[in-house]
Amino acid sequence: MKRILILALSLLIAQIAPAQQALSFRAPVVSPEINADHTVTFRYRNPKAVSVKISGDFLPDRTVADMVEGKDGVWTYTTEPLEGELYLYNFIVDGERRNDPSNMYMNRDIATWTSFFTMSTKQGDKGWYYETHDVPHGTLSKVWYRSNTLGADRRLTVYTPAGYEKGKDKYPVLYLLHGSGGDEDAWADLGRTVQILDNLIAEGKAKPMIVVMPNGVYYNNAAPGYAVNMFQPTMRNSRSDSTVEIEQSFPDIISFIESTYRVAKGPKNRAIAGLSMGGRQSCSVSRSHPGTFGYIGMFSGVVLAETPEAEAALARQMAPKVAPSLYWIGVGSADGVKVNSLKLKEYCEKKGYPVEYYESDGGHIWRNWRVYLTIFAQKIFK
Questions:
Q1: Which residues are CB-neighbours of 36 under 8 A, at least 6 positions away?
Q2: Superfamily assignment of 25-128 in CATH?
């Protein structure tokens, strides 16, 4: 009997051992390694590989660079000195795209997972705001609300500032909308909303605020893994071709937030902003509900005033008694939607409507949208 017990125990240990080994996995090389001179070294160990390249947004014009094979089959590449920023990259091994197995940090954009790292060369640069520092931290929650308009339960990501749980203060609210292919996780993961707000608030550059990040597509109620239809996201099935449904259903979001959280109400305490599709939606929602939002931000996306109906809606929104305190447009100099952003800016200026326009380098990319959020958050609720 004793021998049988010993044998059974040995078999159990043998079964558990592989799992324990997997949990104790250590990266074969250090990658990425941020060097003192602000260069970054990437390493990938694969003695059997014939060709290894690196693709990253730190490379000129987003080109692909060759990695060099060294001792023990370790391939390396070192960048030029980089500025503070969040950088995305992956390896191309014998023609196949792979993430960095030595880097645990990855994020998802639509259906693509990519390795990333942040770096800062000095306090206050872009990369510094995207990192976690020793400051008071807010709370990020994933919550469900009922949209009676759409007849469905839907998911929100909500940021509450440091001290919210133990305090009694009421806070203004920024409603922050994602772009095509995105969902309620996009701004928190790719946009670094939590880090940006924590750092700005700690510096006194932004007022403590609640940030609500909804899922902006009526037929996908939540991000993959939480949605009822278990969809595989693409630019098409995660995009709404019409703004009608969000115009009609957005009051459901506001009602839920203002009945669930300690919220300071009224237009001076409400802002709405978004990127790309979300910029178009923030533009459209604010026109459909004039006087609801005191601050409106359009990041690489607007609705033009090219029809009598659109002109009339914009006129109602800009009427003296309901006009927003801030009507802000941000776009990249190489962004394909810049032409529409300029048209709306020029139309507003022609009509005497107050508008602020900000143009950055680059195109239709997260690198710009993180900057726009950093700027916009410092301008609202003042």
A1: none
A2: Immunoglobulins (2.60.40.10)
